[in-house]
Amino acid sequence: MRIAIIGGGISGLTLAWYLQKGGVAYDLYEADNRPGGNLRSLSRPEGYLLEAGPNSLQLSQELEELLADLGLTDQIQDSAAVSKHRYVLRGGRYRQLPGSPPSLLTNGFFSLKAKWNLLQELRQPAAPTDATETVAQFFRRRFGPEIVDYAVNPFMAGIYAGDPEKLLLHKTFPLAALEQQYGSVLRGLAKTGKGAPRRRIVTLKSGVQTLTDTLAARLTNYHSNTPVENVTRLADGSYQLQLNSSAQPAAHYTHLALALPAFAAANLLQGLFPQAAAALAAVHYPPMSVVFSAYDRAAVTHSLNGFGALHPKVEGTYAAGSIWTSAIYPQRVPAGQVLFTTFVGGAQYEAAATQPEDVQKAAVHAELSRFYGIAGGPRWQERYLWPRSIPQYDERIVAAHAAADSLESANILAVANWRAGVSVPDCIRHARKVAEGLAAGQ
Q1: Are 16 and 157 contained in the same domain?
Q2: Which CATH number fits the domain that encloses residue 241?
Q3: 43, 285, 317, 424: which could join 388 in a potential S-S bond, CB 3.0 to 4.6 Å?
Q4: Which residues is 29 bridged to in the sheet?
């Protein structure tokens, strides 16, 4: 058994790490000169540390064990205590979102009608399971429109860069199972979540890219700057790769592991499995710009006592929201300054994501000034553009997942975030599971 892993993001690197630990032969090919994929940490003068990809990580068991394996436990840095406070724009001002089901009823964020709908959810009968039901349809049916507009919508934009009117419930949240089993989502959450500890929200002191840099450095068969140009299937069912770094094909492989965006995997599979390739090519990746804006603390009147603020689509804003980086990780910003990490784009704001950089920076500054009471201009701004950001778990992902299932019979395994889930812990969990399965089958 020999595995060819194509793609050196967190999924491919994790898969290679656990194959290496399990004694399985592999080669990992990464087209870029740096590992990490969507994990991208940027050091800037004056002591700023920016994250163009994930800003924080939920410390799952698998992530914690991987960090320990790599000797990175001492790099774990918890977010500041204020990070438990989350804000949502409502009526043109930021208001703290209730942090628990009981506080939904006591907090003044939602109207009396919305609170009544929450209580009524306990009495609603369960509806038949519908695999086509979107997140918005489900929450609107169970809880009413206000919860969708001011809780579900900004949350889905913040986590998935997505539109809850299009994202499928069964591909994003297992709430339909609670409805079926307990007759009520709230009742199910109360019974299944009782006493469950909330995961720590952490980063790594030198940036989240430290994780992927360290993984790549520990791998014996990691090949950077090595794009795979073509894949050939031989008569015995094995695979041969054509690399641009050599006129000679690479070694034969019994398995291919595609740790690539769906569209990139589709390009490689087009000649061998055209139907599967078409399904993967259809997966939607909306553009997203990350705009960093630094100000003197004295110029910002808002208290910034939280993780950040999200913007519901109904508020008609330019950006999807901002993380208050200097509040949750003060060590990443010079004393006396604040840093906003603002997200422009995603499935609900695609037109703004592709505007010129100077237009985006000016619009972000204007919006920050309006909502945070900022006097004067920024000390500096910087933009990082993801032309294709987060894969959307909408109706198109169903065919892609079915294609991934069918490819497994040909020893082709998908280990990317369009398959595993969009979070870093999801990717680590899935890649480790695939590696352990391959090692067990040697």
Answers
A1: no
A2: 3.50.50.60
A3: 285
A4: 6, 223
Q: Mean pLDDT score of the chain, rounded to an integer?
A: 94
Q: pTM to 2 decimals?
A: 0.95
What tokens does 293 get? 């804006």
Could you give the CA distance from residue 442 to residue 60 in angstroms, rounded to a whole number?
Answer: 28
**Domain that includes residue 219, residue range:** 2-37+210-284+393-440
Is 174 exposed, middle or buried, given 0-12, 13-18 or 19+ CB atoms closer than 10 A?
exposed
Residue 305: pLDDT over 60: yes
Judged against a pLDDT cut of 70, whether residue 65 lies above it is answered with yes
Task: Supply 35's token pair.
Answer: 């590992």
Report d(CA 241, CA 256) in Å as an integer. Answer: 10
**R_g over Cα of the chain:** 23
Give the mean pLDDT of 118-124: 89
Q: How many domains does the chain have?
A: 2
Largest pairwise CA distance in the chain: 70
The 3-state DSSP class for residue 324 equals: strand
Specify whether 181 is located in the same domain as 217.
no
Cα–Cα–Cα angle for 156, 387, 323, rounded to 5 degrees = 45
> Could you tell me if residue 119 is inside a domain?
yes
Is 154 inside a domain boundary? yes
